[in-house]
Amino acid sequence: MFEIPTFIILFAMTMALFSAIIGRTVYDKILAVNIFGTVTVLFIALFGFLSDRPDFLDIALVYALINFISTVAILKFFEYGDISKSSTKKEESDI
Amino acid sequence: MEILNYFSGIFIMVGSLSIIVGLLGVYRMPDFFTRLHAASVIDTLGAMLILSGLIMHHGLSMISLKLFLILIFILITTPTAAHALAKSALHGNLRPLKGNDSL
Fold first, then answer.
1. Domain region containing B58
2. If you count Cβ atoms within 10 Å of the first and of the last residue's Cβ in chain A, which end, N or C, has fewer?
């Protein structure tokens, strides 16, 4: 029952990585990596049920959180050029 | 219990199909913001259908509680990430295509 969705999700992971390679702008690449993270969480959950040993769900939980944190951190780096700088401080330094 | 298994199978298959549809959109859409729209289908509809199908298949236990927690985390964090991505792309001078632009 779980074989076909697992293969579809493996195919989706491959295509998301390929999209990260051929993406035109940096935002396309970040979008593809974000898709890859979400699909990986689903793959971990489905593979646990496929092998009748759903013990890996904690890893999926942690992976979902790390995926969000990494996306926001990379976006902040590309938007402001610095991870630790906040947007209000930037306006103050301009004044 | 038998009918719940049928429903979980249907949910997981439709979720996989929506993941394929979202990836097709990421490859075929002309503009970054429309690509982001297509990718949000994967993050919300695909994840929601697959995880709720797994919860239905397993029944009530600690494992389905963990699946439910993953579902809640994904439903909170991925729209936030999509919003941050769109805002960052707008600040990075990436303009959306208008109707009369050539593709």
1. 2-91
2. C
